[in-house]
Write a structure and sequence with these properties.
253 residues; alpha/beta; Rossmann fold; 7-stranded mixed β-sheet; 9 helices; globular
Length: 253
């Protein structure tokens, strides 16, 4: 498998705008409107779950870590009135996010800047809330990504992660990056009140997307990548949970 670095993701994001089939399949399965440029696999209904978990207020700084093309963070900021700060290491993704903000979310106070899961470049305690959608598993090492979240999150405020976790952490057939005990890892990073929810409806939407991808005969870069991912993910069905995870930084807000 290719190394999942900035160059890899630049190529991945660059292919997306040239594939109407990729966008169609993703929007249909996840229930996303055409203007929302998806980064990952959060369905439309899941955005409300993330908003509620973040507890971010109008005017406060919301960090969308590994924001990708920015769609989820922009929608959350639109709903909550938060000031959005998107961080990603892909220059191509950041360019797409800025364009989407200008075209479809002009009322949102949004900024997008380069940074990584383990080195955001943000000041300590500067985030009133952090969302990281389906990306923390790419932090190298995983614990360093959580430590960076703990560093930049204001006391008493909330981190929201979405992602996956193997049912059995010793299952070698599942990629190592989703064989972390997420609750234990957040606790070790200093987060309090850690809560882990299994989101089965999200998972059903995801699997529908992968199945649609395999059924498609459109041949372009984005669809080839999508089918490759579908071929890896679908055999894991029934052995991986789809998660919404929250944790609170120590101290009083």
């Amino acid at each position: 498998m290719a190394r999942l670095d900035a160059e890899y993701f630049d190529q991945w994001y660059a292919a997306m705008p040239h594939s109407a089939e990729f966008e169609r399949i993703q929007q249909r399965a996840l229930g996303l409107p055409p203007h929302l440029l998806s980064t990952s696999l959060l369905p439309w209904d899941g955005i409300a779950d993330v908003c509620a978990a973040l507890e971010v207020r109008a005017g406060e700084v919301l960090v969308d870590l590994a924001c990708g093309r920015g769609g989820y963070g922009l929608e959350v900021a639109h709903r909550t009135g938060a000031r959005l700060l998107g961080v990603d290491f892909s220059a191509v993704a950041l360019e797409a996010a800025r364009g989407s903000a200008a075209r479809h979310f002009s009322t949102v106070d949004a900024e997008f800047r380069p940074g990584s899961l383990t080195d955001t470049g943000l000041a300590a305690g500067s985030a009133a809330a952090i969302m990281c959608i389906d990306a923390m598993q790419f932090a190298e090492p995983y614990e360093a990504g959580l430590a960076e979240c703990a560093r930049i999150l204001a006391p008493g405020r909330t981190l929201v992660l979405t992602g996956w976790q193997a049912d059995r952490l010793t299952d070698d057939a599942i990629p190592a990056r989703i064989r972390h005990d997420v609750a234990d890892a957040l606790g070790a990073a200093g987060f309090l009140d850690v809560a882990v929810r299994s989101m089965t409806a999200w998972q059903h939407a995801e699997y529908a997307m992968w199945q649609d991808a395999l059924a498609s005969d459109v041949d372009d870069d984005a669809m080839r990548s999508m089918r490759e991912e579908a071929s890896r993910v679908l055999p894991q069905r029934g052995r991986v949970q789809r998660l919404l995870v929250t944790g609170r930084a120590p101290g009083n807000p």
